[in-house]
Amino acid sequence: MSNHYDVIVIGAGAAGLTAGIYLSRAKISTLILNEGAVGGQMVLTHEIANYPGIESISGYELARGMKLQAQKFGSVIKSNIKITNLALDDALKKVTINNKETFTSHAVIIATGGKPRQLGVNGEDEFKGKGISYCATCDGDFFTGKEIIVAGGGNSALEEAVSLTKYASKVTIIHQFDHFQALEHYVDAAKNNPKINFIMESKIAEFIGDYSLRKVRIENQSTKGITGMNVDGVFVFVGYVPNTEKLEGLIELNNNKEIVVDKNLSTNVAGVFAAGDSIAKRYRQVTTAVADGTIAALGASEYVNNLKKEKMLVESL
Amino acid sequence: MLYTNLTHVLSGQEHAKLLQENENVMICCGRMGPMCIPVYESMEELENEYTHVKFADMEFDSPDAKVIRNLPECSGFAGIPFVVYYKNGKVVKATTSIQSIDQITEILNEHFNHK
Question: ipTM score here?
């Protein structure tokens, strides 16, 4: 089978799969490459209740439906691969996977998404799954009757803190600022919950334990004073970081390492488009990723079709 | 019910039989949830490559899953899935929470060799 496609989509979350659906339906040959499991952050969501037309669906089911739809129209999907080289500058784009196979295309859509931000402090890797969790619905029941901490101050942190009170005897929210970034109704729900208390202007500085987590050290951001707190579990919800490490120096990124795009989701490199959570934008939802995937796919289709028309014109002369 | 293409271990008896009949076994004990699905998918991908390893799953909430939940190697675990690697019926490694395909591959290569 040829290793050349009209478009290579990097990433198989909501944006990448939507791009695949649109491209392959338009008879644009499409390869979707994905470093992890198909579905991106959608599969990290237990229930999606705000996807128009679908009352309630698990992230896994929605991702699976998008994957099957993209494949049905002809997209080729390779997941759990490693992208080892990217050459985007020339008219012919090249993507090498696993250091052994290179694919070429006229256009590339980058939809690499994001990943949950870690706190990046001592003990975090060691106690992941042994007291530290990033998924309340997965691991909440391990902490029934126990005292836990939720780190973060956004919508996810406050919503999950409230949901964790179903299990935990006490939930302490630790947030680095003196105010929350979450929407007012999430803040109100947390403040009105008698099991929740707050430590503001503070950060977790270290996780301590033996075979499981026992204690955290907390640093006050104003005084820089450190206090210890015995705890059974910590749930971390401190936002997301874009998966753009491999793009540094290849396309324009902003200070937050997000991809800079124009209104058509073109990057600063001709033939390279970007979509989804890895681009610079304000709102990150499944629906916005789907919209981005659509726009990028239509832009890439137009780009590829124009190239083909130019080539036919030159050949006819 | 776990919606995977892996071998499903449904009882303690099946678990014992699986260990008896296979030298190298990897069992992912989880739910159909966000931290577990990527692990099942990685196992499905690796199944064709590691033909000398038996890849299986087991429902975390099934009472029979105590054969995994209560393993001493899983004490202190507080994140699903619990993934256990057996060689000749003995636990050689156990992990908790989500693992990447690279992390799984590293364990398979270390304990079961790559053919």
Answer: 0.86
